[in-house]
Each structure stands twice: as structure tokens, then as C-alpha cells.
Amino acid sequence: MQENKTVDDINSDSHERFRAARKSTWVSVFVNFFLVLGQIITGIFSGSQGLIADGIHSLSDLVADFVVLIANHKSKKGADDDHHYGHHRYENGASLILGAILFVVGIGMLWSAVNKIQHPEAIPQVHIIALWVALAALVLKELLFRYMLAVATRVKSSMLVANAWHARSDAASSLVVALGIIGNLLGFKFLDPVAALIVGLIVAKMGYSFMSDSLHDLMDRAVDTETEDKIKATLLATEGIEGIHDLKTRRMGDLIIVDVHLEIDGRLSVKKGHDIAVAARNTVLNNYRVLNVMTHVDPVNIDDKSCE
Where are the transmembrane segments (predicted)? Predict the structure, then answer.
């Protein structure tokens, strides 16, 4: 009962997403490479722990960018003998790895900042150049976030959305670091490691969120109720469908797999019932980001249903 009417459309869409992801990620690699060099080197020579922490965060971005590039390359592969639905879940795996990177980096920042706060006498006076580098990083990261989110929204990629918000977390952390450096320059030396502590909390929290979401998707979490209701309404609107039951959904990367039992008049011929099911399936494929719809036809007595 499965036909490949929209295979070409799905492949074309996947190719567009692959190109967009590759381009936006290489832009991120370029920006983060220079941020890592500038922030860490300046942080060391200016005595700013907050700026060093922000540089390490940018380094995690650089690692994450390469994870995205690898996953993006793998996920565009089609179905084969071992992966009948393709390799779309490489994207879910990449989001899980991105989250793990963020979480580990955040915990490391927290540990370092707490040690500094416990020994305030060891906190150095920060040089003003650290402030200018932090402000420059803030502007670059915010611009990078807006660019990457626009691309991710256009091609509807959760993996690119995760990477874009990773960049936004960098912008937020750079703002905190800049404020901490200002406080240090004004004589409140402890504010620099406090800024590093806040950055660590931001990064760890976001990492945990990404890990949780991607892990649920890898465990076949259903799509949101609103999307399921729309798919259900589309199926019920198909001519010849008297009802549906056992509708199930799960994610495959950024696409959806649907299983559903279709209730069709049992007096119809097998061919007619088949044609109705195919029409319902194709309507869903053509209107939603659905990879496959597995249908099962259940014959029903229309007279009995009308009496219910």
C-alpha cells in the first residue's frame, strides 16, 4: 500500500537543507575560529577568567560546527539495505552530541569559576582591552545567531535551530562577561569570575535541554498534539474515509513517520479501498513534512456506524 509519489520532492527538499546547513555552518566555523583565538589569547594576557571562559565556549561551538557538518553529510544519504527509512536520525544524534558538548563545557566553567570565587585574593585586575574584545564578540555572535536562525527556519531543520541557539547562548554569555569585566575595572574584582559562573550556568542548562529533546526524539517521541490533530483532520477529510484509529507518529530527523488504521466501507472492492487509502496517504505526504505513512485498511459496516 506504499507508493513513492513524493520521493523526488523529499530528495529535493533534503538537498536544499543540506546545502543551506553546509553554508551556514562554514560561516559559523569561520567566525568561531577567530573568536576562539581572540578571546582566549586576550583573556590570558588581560587576566580575565570570564573572557577565557567565553573563548572556551566559542571553542565548543567550533567543535559543534564540525559535528553538524558530519551529521549533515551523513543524514542526506538515502535508504539502503540497513536503513530502510534513510539516515535522517543522524540529525537527532548530532543534536544530542551538541547538547552533551554544551553541558560538559558548562560544568567545567562552573567548577573553574567557583574555585576562583573561593580564593578572591587570586583574582587579578583585568585590562580594559578585555572589555573591547568581549563587546566585539557580543556583536559578532548576535549577528551569527540571527543569520543561522533565519537559515534554520527557512529549511525547517531542528539541528540547525539547535546550532543557532548555541550561537545565541554565546551572545548572552559575552554580554555577561562584558558586564563582569566592567565590574572588575570598577574595583569589584570578584565580578569577573561571577560572570564566568553565570556563563557556565547558561551553557549547562542549554546543553541539558538539547540532550533531553534529542534523546526523546531518538526514543520515538510523538510529534506535538497540534500537528497530530492536523494530520488526523486531513485523513478524515479524504473522500471515502469513514474514520481512523490507532494514529501514531514519531520523528525521523526533521521528518515524521505516521502509522494509522483507516476505516473504509467494507462493501467496497479491495481495489477501491486501496485507492482511497493511497489518496489519503498522498494527501498527508503532500501537505506535511512526513517521510512515510503506513496505512492499514479496516473494513467497517457503514449502516452500523450511522446508528451509533
Answer: 26-45, 93-114, 126-149
